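Batch manifest, entry 17 of 40.
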Amino acid sequence: MKTCVLITTAREEQAAIIYSMTKAWFDVKLFSKHDWENKHVTPELEDILMSGDVDYLFSFCCPLIVPEYLLQAVRNLSVNLHPSPPEYPGVKGAYRACWDKKTEFGVTAHLMEGKVDTGEILKVKRFPIANNDDPAALTLESFRHSVDLYQEVVRDVACGVPFASNECWSNFTMTRRHFEILQADINPVNAN
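Output type: structure tokens
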């Protein structure tokens, strides 16, 4: 069985589901959960990736940015599940889609590179937006679709199914700081 490291969101229910899906196909050498306050590479994560014994790295909606030297230590693929479509790299894609009054949203599986949300896109799953006035609801909906897409992608990786996507990333990646500035401009009353 191929080996992997799995890093996920700290959301317990989603993390547990993703772990269960992953261990069905891979020998999970390390499973670690991260939130925005815990988004740093741990010594344990660095050690296991640098060992050269990891075939795949899977990241599910995880805020941790894995440095290039660790990505290069993975024998095969490093795959990230981004809870927004390629039009919205970076953070808070659901908010941006609502601000843009979009009627469709999506989630993206892509290869990881040193620069966030720039790697080759493997697969995108799109879905209609029921209410583009509620970014929190859209965020939750995107996480549900992220779980579905992750299940497809982890299975396809395990089975050696090739990916063929013609999708491309937008050239603007939203950082947390950009988001705070835009949010203040859009909702000045709620900025503080």
